[in-house]
From TrEMBL, chain A:
<dbReference type="GO" id="GO:0046982">
    <property type="term" value="F:protein heterodimerization activity"/>
</dbReference>
<dbReference type="GO" id="GO:0005654">
    <property type="term" value="C:nucleoplasm"/>
</dbReference>
<dbReference type="InterPro" id="IPR039127">
    <property type="entry name" value="Trm112"/>
</dbReference>
<dbReference type="GO" id="GO:0048471">
    <property type="term" value="C:perinuclear region of cytoplasm"/>
</dbReference>
<protein>
    <recommendedName>
        <fullName>Multifunctional methyltransferase subunit TRM112-like protein</fullName>
    </recommendedName>
</protein>
<comment type="similarity">
    <text>Belongs to the TRM112 family.</text>
</comment>
<dbReference type="GO" id="GO:0070476">
    <property type="term" value="P:rRNA (guanine-N7)-methylation"/>
</dbReference>
<keyword id="KW-0963">Cytoplasm</keyword>
<dbReference type="Pfam" id="PF03966">
    <property type="entry name" value="Trm112p"/>
</dbReference>
From TrEMBL, chain B:
<keyword id="KW-0808">Transferase</keyword>
<dbReference type="InterPro" id="IPR039769">
    <property type="entry name" value="Bud23-like"/>
</dbReference>
<dbReference type="Pfam" id="PF12589">
    <property type="entry name" value="WBS_methylT"/>
</dbReference>
<keyword id="KW-0489">Methyltransferase</keyword>
<dbReference type="InterPro" id="IPR029063">
    <property type="entry name" value="SAM-dependent_MTases_sf"/>
</dbReference>
<feature type="region of interest" description="Disordered">
    <location>
        <begin position="255"/>
        <end position="280"/>
    </location>
</feature>
<dbReference type="GO" id="GO:0005737">
    <property type="term" value="C:cytoplasm"/>
</dbReference>
<dbReference type="GO" id="GO:0070476">
    <property type="term" value="P:rRNA (guanine-N7)-methylation"/>
</dbReference>
<dbReference type="GO" id="GO:0005730">
    <property type="term" value="C:nucleolus"/>
</dbReference>
Length: 124, 280
């Protein structure tokens, strides 16, 4: 699971959960791999992100690097900044661990990079 | 009637697409070709902004045959599928999309406005079945479509290639999509060919627009397209009549009376149709 995906994931499908966001990451294995940098994609996806959630997730995984805690202005024209965002969004991956619902504490396991968001019959 | 050739009738999807089936499915070059072609057509129907890398959803992504098409077009994607075996094969194939194990019928686990579009190739018909005692296909479809509506941006489209078993399934699916707020309809490519005939459900979030033309037909025949307006639009339209200002309504009424040759008051003042204090 990439942090881009984590930024969009919620547990609101659980019965009784209102926003279910953000899911807390408990990481056992984290992998960093190289992904081609696409400046346009990163700057297009940025307005959709919850910056604070991204920053905290990256910090929690120990990969926040020089990423500023508050989003800078005019990032479209700042490839150096966008490269750092690219790195945390697409290159840092949680391989094994858990995602925890902030409202119920329900844990969703992540195994070999795939979060298991399946619900039990009594949870829908 | 139960046909034994439809995979949906053999077993629930997570059991049907086991390791053996996942390997067989993904290793079949004819299968790869068909899924690729259908996803290319779905991309066309999605009308994404040209030359912009988008963030897309692949619903029932399986082993990533459809996802590969998204990648080749320069897009980033997240795939959801209920079969772990299929997702494992997607990983083996080193597709670039991020994968999530989930049941579409439970609703999609994403934040509002996350994606620029969605495709789904050969998966939607699975949702018409009740695989567990507590499954109600209508409710599951509604949950799925309403969660999809929420997690798409307001210019996004979702395009589903699917294999409906009969017209009732098409109705069931479109009714639930409408109820969830989507506009759009069905496009049938090559309607006169038993082999090439393909059903696409094209859903729009941001208002009603004409449906794309079907392939393999001279003119766009009515049978190759069926458009619906969403429940929300109907509601809006129905309401608009009621919120029409008093003045508009009076002017229209005067016009009607005039056409009918009935006497009308010619002089309207600036007070015509003005709201007056309500008295009890
Ligand atoms: C024919 S395969 C198509 C896979 C891929 N889209 C492709 O084009 O190759 C259908 C897929 O739908 C998935 N599926 C069926 N029902 C589902 C459900 N309720 N939730 C998520 N995925 C489902 C199956 O597991 C299977 O991988």
């Amino acid at each position: 699971m990439k942090l881009l995906t984590h930024n969009m994931l919620s547990s609101k499908c659980l019965k009784g959960v209102v926003t279910g966001y953000p899911l807390t990451i408990i990481a056992k294995d984290v992998k960093v791999s190289e992904v081609d940098f696409n400046q346009e994609f990163v700057s297009r996806v940025l307005p959709k992100l919850d910056w604070n959630v991204l920053w905290k997730a990256a910090e929690r995984l120990g990969h926040v690097g020089e990423l500023p805690q508050t989003l800078i202005e005019n990032y479209e024209n700042d490839p150096e900044f966008l490269k750092k965002v690219h790195h945390v969004l697409l290159e840092v991956e949680v391989i094994n661990g858990e995602l925890v619902c902030p409202e119920t504490g329900r844990k969703f396991p992540i195994t070999s990079g795939i979060p298991n968001m399946l619900l039990n019959d009594d949870e829908v | 009637m139960f046909s034994r050739t439809r995979p949906e009738h053999k077993a629930p999807p997570d059991l049907f697409y086991d390791e053996k089936e996942a390997q067989k499915y993904t290793g079949n070059s004819r299968m790869i070709e068909i899924q690729t072609q259908m996803c290319e057509r779905a991309m066309e129907l999605m009308l994404l902004p040209e030359d912009e890398p988008c963030f897309l959803l692949d619903l029932g992504c399986g082993s990533g045959l459809s996802g590969s098409v998204l990648e080749e077009n320069g897009h980033y994607w997240v795939g959801v599928d209920i079969s772990r075996a299929m997702l494992d094969v997607a990983q083996e194939r080193e597709t670039e999309g991020d994968l999530i194990l989930g049941d579409l019928g439970d609703g999609l686990p994403f934040r509002a406005g996350a994606f620029d579009g969605a495709v789904s190739i050969s998966a939607l018909q699975w949702l018409c079945n009740a695989d567990k005692v507590n499954h109600n296909p209508q409710k599951r479809l509604y949950k799925f479509f309403s969660s999809l509506f929420a997690c798409l941006s307001r210019t996004a489209r979702a395009v589903f290639q699917f294999y409906p078993e009969n017209s009732k399934q098409v109705e069931l699916i479109t009714a639930q999509a409408m109820k969830a707020g989507f506009y759009g309809g069905i496009v049938i490519d090559y309607p006169n060919s038993t082999k090439a005939k393909k059903f696409f459900l094209v859903l729009m979030t941001g208002g009603s627009a004409p449906l794309p033309k079907a392939l393999g037909v001279e003119e766009s025949l009515p049978q190759t397209q069926a458009q619906f307006t969403s429940k929300r639009e109907k509601f809006k339209k129905g309401n608009r009549k009621n919120v029409k200002s008093n003045k508009e309504w009076i002017l229209e009424k005067i016009e009607r009376r005039r056409k009918q040759g009935k006497p009308v008051r010619e002089h309207l003042s600036k007070f015509t149709g003005r709201s007056r204090p309500t008295k009890f």
